[in-house]
Automatic annotation (TrEMBL):
Pfam short name (any one): PUF_NOP9
Gene3D superfamilies the record matches: Leucine-rich Repeat Variant (1.25.10.10)
Gene Ontology CC: one annotated term: nucleolus
Stated name of the protein: Nucleolar protein 9
Region of interest: Disordered: 1-52
Length: 613
């Protein structure tokens, strides 16, 4: 009975056609078929631009399939029967289903549940004879997603297939993907420039290389509006993919001119280089060399590097950024010496070219060429600040954190740029100025009268790039200037800093990098602010970071202040986690046990940090 019910549940998604009786026999009525065709209720109706679209009955069916997929399946047999029944409805009109929005979404969810052989059959029907139809489906806004989902299914391939039938199933899918790649190579210009087709090429590059990120339809983690690089997962690939990848990359490089004129095509070339760097490093070096040769040998004005033109172009500048990031030392040195040197400040002032300069500054940090690059950029630091290209300054600071030789020079240059170098009494004002990216006169509303007494101004105007700058400076070997400035802030300013989206990272970076003695001085200034910090979304995180790096005596001082507001902490949505993490109940009722636990935890943290170091 249970098996019968499963079969009925799965077969329930097999569409009953109009005119079928309860036994499943279709009633034949003369003229019905012609009438349905006239009404547009057949396998599809003519949509926009004459393209076939699913009829309303089919759309409703695939919508119900999606609802059934939401429910999930308890048994493997039930799932397999369901998939088979749905695919039987797709058969013969796969392209029409794939290019319909509802049908496309349903197929994208169904294909990961299919066997390799079933996916190969869907691809074979989508591609038509010898893959002739792949281009139309792949460049469709809905169909492209389906082809991508089918291609991603190869990630489950393994060389040691359990049965002969399973091996044949994978071989069929492999053959279809090779056919798809051949179609892409034959029509490479159309694919890489097409807004939808280019995504298929990028997915195909991942598949042929053997690494895969999350599907495009899945939400990416990270703050809203900020791009987060997807995490890639490696998988086994058939040996044929190794050779096909070489053929596809060669074809792309033969059309490298498209990458400098079309932003969509440029993204394909960026994916190619990134994937090859991860999976085919030798091939990547060859590709980088060929791409660089093209970009640096185009005609330009006499005495002007052609690369300077491409650096200022929205499409090609992104590709150059990737080339800089992935280049080996020799190629990077050649780019700097022959194309960037002497032009860095002008490029840093350009709205687009400043981004490749940032990538070059980051890549050069571990080489001697950074010293010359630093000396050139530092001459124009005030002009770069005035242009608002803070990414260049932040990256320069982050690179200096790696290269200790130029750290003092950068600090002194920043003090001069923010007008707090002279007189020396202004040094203690550097932290608010760096975080707000405002000069001394603007921040303190002063006329820069030398020797004048500064006015108390509440901490404000903390900005993202200012926060990033101070976080980079906090990694310098000599941080006494920043810590002295931090200790001059009032407790109210420290609370503002801890509760600010950008400032909280600054406070955490400065406290966690301080010595025990320096941390104690800062914590002394924070006394009386621990409770409002614990009740703040951001402040509570800073407080936890402080706690993790504190000694037992510092923890005891923090706990002593927090337990006085037990009711407030235990009822607050953020502070209650602090209460539990700091074990404050045990601090009140089992003090000796609490101290023993805290001592053991600190020793354990120190042991792990020593091992990692």
């Amino acid at each position: 009975m249970l098996e019968d019910r499963k079969r009925q549940n799965s077969e329930g998604m097999k569409r009953r056609h109009p005119g079928e009786d309860e036994g499943g026999e279709r009633k034949r009525r003369g003229g019905d078929e012609g009438e349905r065709k006239r009404r547009g209720e057949g396998e599809g109706r003519q949509g926009d631009r004459g393209r076939k679209r699913l009829d309303a009955l089919s759309v409703g069916y695939f919508r119900r399939v999606g609802e059934r997929l939401d429910e999930g399946f308890k048994e493997k047999e039930e799932r397999e029967m369901f998939v088979e029944n749905v695919l039987s409805e797709v058969k013969g009109k796969a392209a029409v289903v794939a290019m319909d929005m509802t049908g496309s979404i349903t197929l994208q969810r169904l294909l990961p549940l299919c066997s390799p052989g079933q996916v190969a059959e869907v691809l074979a029907e989508l591609g038509g004879p010898e893959g002739a139809e792949f281009k139309e489906v792949s460049c469709d806004r809905c169909g492209g997603h389906v082809v991508e989902s089918a291609a991603r299914r190869i990630s489950g391939w393994t060389e040691s297939s359990t049965t002969e039938e399973e091996k044949e199933s994978w071989d069929e899918l492999e053959a279809q993907l090779l056919t798809l790649s051949q179609v892409v190579r034959d029509n490479i210009a159309e694919f890489v420039k097409h807004v939808h087709g280019s995504h298929l090429v990028r997915t195909l590059l991942h598949v042929l290389a053997g690494c895969m990120g999350p599907p495009r339809t899945e939400p990416r983690p990270g703050p809203k509006g900020r791009t987060v690089a997807p995490q890639l997962t490696d998988f086994e690939i058939p040996s044929s993919f190794w050779y096909e990848m070489k053929s596809l990359t060669d074809t792309l490089l033969d059309n490298v001119k498209l990458s400098v004129t079309d932003a969509v095509a440029s993204a394909v070339f960026q994916t190619m280089l990134t994937v090859c760097h991860r999976k085919r490093p030798i091939l990547c070096k060859q590709l980088l060399k060929r791409a660089t040769e093209y970009l640096t040998t185009r005609s330009a004005a006499p005495g002007v590097s052609p690369l300077l033109v491409f650096l200022k172009d929205p499409a090609s500048s992104h590709l150059i950024e990737i080339i800089i990031q992935l280049s080996p030392k020799a190629l990077l040195r050649d780019l700097y010496k022959n194309h960037f040197k002497g032009q860095l400040v002008n490029l840093a002032l350009h709205a687009i070219a400043n981004f490749p300069v940032q990538r070059l500054t980051a890549a050069a940090a571990k080489y001697k060429m950074f010293l010359g690059l630093f000396d050139e950029l530092i001459e124009g630091i005030e002009a770069i600040l005035a242009a608002g290209h803070m990414g260049v300054i932040v990256q320069l600071a982050e690179s200096c954190a790696e290269c200790e030789e130029k750290q003092d020079d950068l600090i002194q240059c920043l003090l001069r740029a923010f007008h707090c170098a002279e007189p020396g009494t202004r040094h203690v004002s550097c932290l608010p100025l760096f975080m707000s990216l405002l000069t001394y006169e603007v921040y303190y509303h002063s006329d820069a009268a030398e020797g004048s007494t500064q006015t108390e101004v509440p901490l404000s105007s903390i900005c993202y790039h200012g926060s990033r700058l101070v976080q980079a400076l906090a990694k310098f070997k000599e941080r006494s200037l920043l810590l002295s400035s931090l200790r001059t802030l009032t407790p109210a300013d420290l609370l503002t800093l801890a509760s600010d989206p950008s400032g909280s990272h600054v406070l955490q970076a400065l406290i966690t990098t301080s010595s025990d003695k320096g941390r104690g001085k800062i914590l002394k200034r924070l006394e009386g602010q621990y409770v409002p910090m614990a009740c703040s979304r951001l402040g509570s995180r800073v407080l936890e970071a402080i706690w993790n790096g504190s000694t037992v005596s510092h923890r005891q001082s923090i706990a002593q202040e927090l337990v006085r507001s037990e009711n407030q902490l235990r009822s607050d949505q953020f502070a209650r986690h602090v209460w539990a993490k700091f074990a404050l109940y045990h601090f009140i009722h089992r003090r000796a046990n609490w101290q023993e636990i805290q001592s053991g935890e600190i020793k354990k943290r120190k042991l792990f940090s020593d091992i990692l170091a």
